[in-house]
Structures are given as C-alpha cells and as structure tokens.
Amino acid sequence: MEIIRSNFKINLPKVYQAIEEADFFAIDGEFSGISDGPSVTALTSGFDTPEERYQKLKKHSMDFLLFQFGLCAFKYDHANSKHVTKSFNFYVFPKPFSRSSPDVKFVCQSSSIDFLASQGFDFNKVFCSGIPYLNQEEERQLREQFDEKRSQANGAGALTKCPVTIPEDQKKFIDQVIEKIEGFLQREEKRTLELNPCTGFQRKLIYQTLSWKYPKGIHVETLETDKKERHIVISKVDEEERKRREQEKYAKEQEELNDAVGFSRVIHAIANSDLNEFKEMTTCVFPRLLDTKLMASTQPFKDIINNTSLAELEKRLKETPFDPPKVESAEGFPSYDTASEQLHEAGYDAYITGLCFISMANYLGSLLSPPKTCVSARSKLIEPFFNKLFLMRVMDIPYLNLEGPDLQPKRDHVLHVTFPKEWKTSDLYQLFSAFGNIQISWIDDTSAFVSLSQPEQVQIAVNTSKYAESYRIQTYAEYVGKKQESKQVKRKWTEDSWKEVDRKRPHVPGPCYHTNSFTAAGIVGKRTLSPDPREAGVVDRESEGISDPELEQTDYCADPLPEGRKKAKKLKRMKKEFSLAGSASDSPAVLFEVPDTW
After folding, report:
1. Regarding predicted confidence, which is higher, 41 or 135?
2. What pLDDT digit, counting tens, does each position of 265-310 carry?
C-alpha cells in the first residue's frame, strides 16, 4: 500500500493495526546517499572496532535524507498454514509546513541518485507528496513558537489600545488599506475583502493597525495562493463568529503541527545518538531485532548460502534444502511478485526480507527431531541471532552487539604501521616480504594495519623498525593503549575546563524530549542489498503489544537512557529465564550458535 502525504492520516489506523497484529515485521529504507566523504570501502578498515566503524559511518552519513520507508507485517494463518502480509511503502520528505518551521538542508550523492533513477524510483513523489517529519528539538521549538504566537494573539487587544507607530515610507500604503476597509464596511452586501499580496512587514503593520482601529466586527487572517503568495482576507463577523473562527484556526494549526511530526521520533532518536546510546535506543524501540544477513552468514546457513545480498539470498532460499513459505497479501493490500524483482522499492525489499527470515527460521525447525514445519518468531531457535547487527568488512568482529559489550579480539598478530604519504600497498608488501602471507587494511594515507600469519613474528617485525627513519611499527596493543591515553587526557582537560565554567553559570535544566512510545517483541534486520548497499534496514518484528502513538506518549527529560537500560536488563533476564525453561529438543545451542569470530 502506497502511503503519501494526502492519504497518510486516513491510513494510519491500518498501519497501527498491522503492527499490533503482526508476528513480525520487516522494514527497509531508500536514502539520498551513503557517504558524503570517501567511499565506504575507502573509509572503513578491516580492523575497525565497532565504535570506530559506527563513528566513521555516522560522521559521513548524517546529512542524507531517507526518501522511502518500507514496512511489511507478517501474520501466520494457522488454519491455512500460510503467512498473511500487509505491506506499506511510505514516501517521506521534510517539507516545511509553515514559514517558521525548519527548512532542512540535505546532501545527495550522484551515484546513489543515478542508481535509484535506474531502478525507476519516483523522485517527484518524494518531493511533491512525501510525508513531512520533524525531529524532537524542532518539534519542541515549533510548539513553543506556536504557544507564544497564541499568547500574543490573545493579548493583542491589551497591547494595541493606542495607535501603532508607522514608518514614513509605509504610511501611504496603510492609509490606502484603511480606505479600502472603510468602503468594505459600508457595503452591507459584501462579506469578505481580499487585500493585495504584500510583504511580511506590511502584513504585520496591517494586523497591528486593524486590531487597534477595529477591535470588533471583523476577522483578519492570512491566506496563501497556489503560487505561494500570501495575502490578507478580512471578513465581517460578530463576536461569536470571530471566536469560532479563531478556534478553528487554532485547531487547524495544531493539526498541521501534529501532521508535521511524522517519522521523526524513531529516525532522529537513532541518528543523533553515539554508539552506546544507539544500542540502548534501538533495543528500547526494537527489543527483539534480527539481522537476516548475520543469520545467513552463520551456521548452519554459512556453508549452504554463498551470497547474502538480499536479492541473491531470496533466490537461494527458494531452492533445496529450503522450502519457500506460503504467503498472500491481506485483503485490500497489493501483492508482490518476486519474479518481477521490484528491488529498491522499500516496501518490496521489506517484503522479501521477511520471506528470507521465514525460510531460514523454518529450515532450523526442519533440523529438530521431530521436525517443525513452521517456526514462530518467538521460538528459542532464533534466540542466538537477536540484537546482533552484521558488520561488513571487519575481519574478526562479525557483529555489533546491541545488548552488551562488543567482542574484543586479541589481535596479537596485528601491527600498526605509520609511513610517508607517498607509500603504496606494494611498499608495505615489500617491507613485510620476509614474514610470509600478510593482510593489509588501510586506515588513512599514512597508516595501516598489517596482519601477520604467525603471531610469534610480531616482535621481530617491531624490532626491525627501531632504527628506521621513514616508518614506524608498533603492536596493536601499543596502538590501542596510546589511543586510550590520548582520549583520557583530552577528557580530563575537557572535564576540568567545564567544571570551571559550571561554577560560573547558573543551573539550567536539561532539554526535555517528547516521544511516542511503543513496545516490540521481535525485529529482523536487512543490512545490505545487491548490487548497492545504500539501503540500511531493520527487519522482522514480532509484536507483544503496540500502542497507538497518539494515545500513549513518553517524555524523556534530560536523560532518556535509564529507561532503555532497564528494558535491556529486563530483556536479558527474560531471555535467561526463557532459556532455562526450554526443552532440549528445541534448544538452539544443540544446533548452532553465533560465533565470537569466524
């Protein structure tokens, strides 16, 4: 189902219902680019820590826009042994809803736009019909401006009992407006008067003059033409009608502000966080998240699936030993045909990601004794995959752990090398030619990690650089230790300097964030699509209970993280209790486990 600005509100109840009823759902996104700096391949290193990888990708992706958001909800029909799907394709765009709302600046990457265009992506629909959104701070500021404007309007009569001062160059203009209004008031048959478009300053002078000169009997409002020209309309009204129109205007502005909030709460809450906050916010919003790429890259799938890109994965899971799931679209929802391959439409990508999850989950069930033909999204069989996100091109850390500390491999076979900017990969191979097979992972123009095949040769390599003038070699442990020392010194300096500032300034309460809340029981994630990794997605969630965001809201004041920590601890406790209560025949540990390293 295609969702744009014009049908967003009317279809919102269907979206809420689909989420509430779903056993799990899949989501996907299409963006205006992936990196505003170096290419992702050049930007990342095979020996990035999860923190470093997250910061690198975040630094070079914050100014891109989400153009399209796809959601596909899956619910299993036990009577007919099939999954029923409800798919939604949202076009989103942060169009300013008023002159005072944020005018967002964003970046486009030419290769990304060219790729989307080649896939038939409808950019006109994004820019002309996209659903707007605001982040939390923008929403707070606009609501404050709205309340202040309302307050000033209510007190306008008290403020304008005396004539306003009109600049000399505007007096003739205001006199002409007053003359038109006087003539309008004397003609009983005419109920409205439209003034010619004018500047914002002139409209302000008109409002101030009319509120003083005609405190009763007329209603004044500013309207906008199709050409974005703003003009004033004056209507003859009694006091009761004037109050009614003011109330209608207030309700309309309030509704417009609510409509403008859109997708912001989830999107910007994640985008504005650092790594730990990102983990806690993600598990708070999506307590059970599963990455299908990680799942497909792990035993028992690793040996039978060669390509984990979404398009190729979907094709492979139709073949032996997998069994394609039976699915059909719910009544009133469009169906997708995988033979037509509508790749890079967010709704379709979310749909086939969900199919991939079902096929892999059911395959795990086939390994049990006796076999299970349909594995629920709540099954313990898939517990090992929850809340782990696949990390691409990291040699020894396969995933980002959302529920706790990330893996910390020893890396005692890795060296950190600094060298002149003119050096190339061939120079590094020549330098380490005596040490056999090596792997090189560039950090920047003057440094790289070099992995040796034999850890006992590390100290020999370090010793060779003691008297070298053009390059330096140190162990990975030495590199990390010096980096941590530098951070501690910087942090201490920052803390000491801010302590001095804090002593000199009054206490100001922290910002208050207002966000809709809902709980989710299971999510599966799609990380990359073939042939282009631009779409980052999170997939597959099973609903324990979704509440209407309009009805249930949570205020995060100053620090929203403790609640996220509580939920993460609660989830861990539930998983531990769940594991202890399970039967041996359904235990995932008997079949497989997500490895620490590959």
Report:
1. 41
2. 334 333 344 767 677 767 776 788 899 999 999 989 999 999 999 9
Amino acid identity at 156: A
For strand 82-91 and strand 2-3, is the pairing parallel, antiparallel, or unpaired?
A: parallel
Q: Residue written as tokens 């509704």? A: 255
In SS3 terms, 198-224 reads as CCHHHHHHHHHHHHHHCCCCEEEEEEE
User: Rounded to whole angstroms, how far apart are CA atoms 216 and 236?
Assistant: 9
Q: How far apart are CA 358 and CA 366, in angstroms?
A: 12
Cα 1 to Cα 117, 118, 222, 319, 347: the distances in Å are 21, 22, 36, 29, 8
Question: What's the pLDDT band for 100 if we cut at 50, 70, 90?
Answer: low
pLDDT at 575 over 50: no
Provide DSSP, 268-334. Answer: HHHHT--HHHHHHHHHHH-SSEEEHHHHHTSTTTTTT-S--SHHHHHHHTTSTT--PPPEEEPTTS-
Question: Rg of the chain over CA atoms, in angstroms?
Answer: 30
Residue 33: name the closest of 537, 539, 538, 535 by CA: 535
Instruction: Return the bridge partners of 120, or none.
Output: none
- Structural tokens at position 332: 């009133």
The residue ranges of DSSP E strands in 92-203, in sequence order, are 192-194
Q: Where are the beta strands (DSSP E) in 338-403?
A: 388-390, 399-401
In sequence order, the 6+-apart residues with CB closer than 8 A to the CB of 100 are 142, 145
Its sign, for the CA torsion 366, 368, 374, 377, is: negative
Average pLDDT, the chain: 76
Q: Which of 4, 107, 97, 29 is nearest to 61 (CA)?
A: 107
pTM of the model: 0.55
The span from the CA of 263 to the CA of 170, in Å, is 44
Check whether 518 has a pLDDT greater than 70: no
Residue 355: its pLDDT value, please?
94
Which tokens hold the place of 230? Answer: 């703003």
Distance between CA atoms of residues 516 and 528, nearest Å: 28
